[in-house]
Design goal:
Elements lengths: L15 E8 L2 H10 L6 E8 L17 E8 L10 H16 L7 E4 L3 E4 L2 E12 L5 E9 L24 H19 L5 H11 L6 E5 L4 E9 L5 E4 L6 E3 L3 E4 L5
Parallel strand pairs: 1-2
Antiparallel strand pairs: 2-3, 3-7, 4-5, 5-6, 6-7, 8-9, 8-12, 9-10, 10-11
Helix pairs in contact: 2-3, 2-4
Length: 259
């Protein structure tokens, strides 16, 4: 992230936007442009993706009607500060969606680490991908897939869309809000120096703290009580046996949603 002029406060004016009708993946498009020397702070949106992906290489439903947006950042923070960027991305998307929901609409919440739920159902996934570039820079992409008008027929979690939740808004209108809230949140995050403020806002919007959950890891599943997150953004799980465990990555299921 190159920041504003002379290292000043980040604002929406520091970001550019390219809109595509179709691409394989907005994340892949951002990384390709980074390899070609793009300076970063670039948003790529697409009406449709032919190869959208989620965490762990899962396919991401990407037909027209929803928002597919990725932000390319170059050298956004020292490596030891990057762990908190997924939380900042979730805060930014949560802010944007809350701004477009009508009065009396269901609760909008964050599920660890960075899924956005409406009334307990997933409406957004966020995928961060990074790559070291030949010129020594580091590219990091924040990819956001938000169910605005349509939902997949099959999904790992219960899903919904903004339209089903009562928001009559287009993907383009939602992106206009996200463009602003992401700049605001990155300014607060401040290259990782503002992580305490980000974690406080994340916790205020979180769902499931104190509840019984199951966390699916690549090699096993753990069940227990979701205690919260630590200063590094890791999930703290009390399994009832020994000290609580800090988990850096995994798929969280609330007990009522287990299959």
């Amino acid at each position: 992230m190159t920041g504003g002029p002379a290292g000043g406060r980040i604002s929406p004016d520091d970001f550019r936007h390219v809109s595509l009708a179709e691409t394989v993946s907005t994340n892949s498009e951002c990384l390709a442009r980074a390899r070609e020397g793009d300076p970063g702070n670039l948003w790529i949106t697409a009406t449709r993706q032919t190869g959208g992906r989620g965490r762990r290489g899962r396919a991401w439903f990407s037909e027209p009607g929803n928002l597919y947006a990725s932000l390319l950042l170059i050298d956004p923070a020292p490596v030891e500060k990057l762990h908190s960027l997924p939380l900042a991305a979730a805060v930014a998307v949560h802010r944007a969606i809350r701004r477009v929901m009508p009065p009396g609409s269901p609760e909008v919440a964050i599920k660890w680490p960075n899924d956005i739920l409406i009334d307990g159902r997933k409406t957004c996934g966020i995928l961060l991908e990074g790559e070291s570039l030949p010129d020594g820079r580091h590219a990091l992409v924040i990819g956001c897939g938000i169910n605005v008008a349509t939902i997949p027929a099959e999904a790992l979690y219960p899903v919904t869309s903004l339209r089903l939740a009562g928001a009559t808004i287009s993907p383009e209108e939602l992106f206009a809000h996200l463009f602003v809230t992401m700049a605001e949140t990155l300014a607060t995050w401040n290259h990782g120096a503002g992580v305490a403020s980000i974690i406080a806002e994340w916790r205020a919007a979180a769902r499931g703290v104190g509840e019984a959950i199951t966390v699916n890891l690549p090699d096993r599943s753990l069940s227990g009580r979701f205690v919260g997150i630590d200063q590094d953004g890791r999930l703290i799980l009390d399994t009832g046996s020994g000290a609580p465990q800090a988990i850096a990555a995994g798929d969280v299921f609330f007990r009522m949603n287990e299959k």
